[in-house]
């Protein structure tokens, strides 16, 4: 096991009562190819989850659409009953007709059904952080968020998050229900959600960057590579360190199906960029 744990990244408190280490784990990559079906080796996938928790990760992000259902099932098989302090965040609002096929479904009836399914698969009575995966253009946004508010009042959701939103959509959701976290695509090369991140930092909302190290496209930049060489690290580790330095509300959730890759990601928690290095990366 790596001697560096997720605790090296410091902590973040979500919603006032969920304090987690600031390097989480995204559980999309533990399922089959195309984010579809079971992984080739279910036991290996569960060992990755167990290793993450043993290495200080106490925030795991998943969704009913990962598999679909498979990621949540693996998490429960590997980790339930959950250790104290472990936060399992999941999402609803996308359906999967097939591999690499993602379709929105923000109908309140679907969201209620999706939440009940997540509760069963995760073996929980309440989801600590339940997130609306993506606005559905076919359904008024207020209706979808209203369903989340009802489920929270019913005691089935502790805190609510939104994902893949604009600043205006975030504001619209917050006018209906307290929102404690936002999950948008954001990484060293893709900073299109900068304004949303700024809004989260201003109001103390957690910001979960998905694809924090570029997703399927490898991050490449001369400054990343130069600093990686100087720190004895990889460019992806420098990119994660940059995210952690970018904002105190940042909670990266890099995912992997490999223990070796997980340890490489965790090592980024202990990387410290100087102010000059951070500026050089930010301005590149």
Describe how the helices and strands are arranged.
Blueprint: E1 11-14, E2 18-21, E3 25-26, H1 42-54, E4 59-61, H2 70-79, E5 87-92, E6 94-98, E7 101-104, H3 108-122, E8 127-132, H4 141-153, E9 157-163, H5 167-174, E10 179-185, H6 194-203, E11 206-210, H7 222-231, H8 235-246, H9 259-267, H10 275-283
Helix pairs in contact: 1-2, 3-4, 7-8
Tell me what the structure shows.
The chain has a single domain (10-218, 248-257), classed as NADP-dependent oxidoreductase domain (TIM Barrel, Alpha-Beta Barrel), CATH 3.20.20. It has 10 helices and 11 strands. The protein has helices spanning 42-54, 70-79, 108-122, 141-153, 167-174, 194-203, 222-231, 235-246, 259-267, 275-283, and strands at 11-14, 18-21, 25-26, 59-61, 87-92, 94-98, 101-104, 127-132, 157-163, 179-185, 206-210. The strands form 3 sheets. A 7-stranded parallel beta sheet has the order 3-4-5-8-9-10-11, with helices on one face. Strands 1-2 form a two-stranded antiparallel ribbon. Strand 10, helix 6 and strand 11 form a beta-alpha-beta unit. The longest helix has 15 residues, at 108-122. The chain starts with 10 loop residues before the first strand and ends with a helix. The model has no long low-confidence stretch (mean pLDDT 96).
């Amino acid at each position: 096991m790596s001697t560096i744990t997720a605790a090296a990244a410091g902590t973040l408190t979500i919603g006032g009562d969920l304090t987690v280490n600031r390097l989480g784990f995204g559980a999309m990559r533990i399922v089959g190819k195309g984010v579809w079906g079971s992984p080739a080796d279910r036991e290996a996938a569960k060992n990755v989850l167990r290793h993450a928790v043993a290495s200080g990760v106490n925030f795991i992000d998943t969704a009913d659409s990962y598999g679909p259902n498979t990621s949540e099932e693996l998490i429960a098989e590997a980790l339930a009953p959950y250790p104290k302090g472990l936060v399992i965040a999941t999402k609803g609002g996308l359906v999967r007709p097939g591999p690499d096929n993602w379709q929105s479904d923000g109908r309140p009836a679907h969201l209620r059904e999706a939440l009940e399914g997540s509760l069963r698969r995760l073996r929980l009575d309440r989801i600590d952080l339940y997130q609306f995966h993506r606005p559905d253009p076919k359904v008024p946004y207020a209706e979808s968020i209203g369903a989340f508010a009802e489920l929270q009042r019913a005691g089935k959701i502790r805190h609510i998050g939104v994902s893949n939103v604009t600043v205006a959509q975030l504001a619209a959701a917050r006018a209906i229900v307290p929102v404690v976290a936002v999950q948008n695509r954001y990484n060293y090369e893709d900073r299109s959600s900068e304004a949303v991140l700024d809004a989260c930092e201003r109001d103390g909302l957690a910001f979960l960057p998905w694809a924090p190290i570029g997703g399927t496209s490898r991050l490449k930049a001369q400054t990343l590579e130069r600093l990686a060489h100087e720190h004895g690290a990889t460019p992806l580790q420098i990119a994660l360190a940059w995210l952690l330095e970018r904002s105190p509300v940042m909670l990266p959730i890099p995912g992997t199906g490999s223990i070796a890759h997980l340890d490489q990601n965790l090592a980024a928690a202990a990387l410290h960029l100087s102010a000059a290095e951070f500026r050089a990366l930010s301005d590149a």
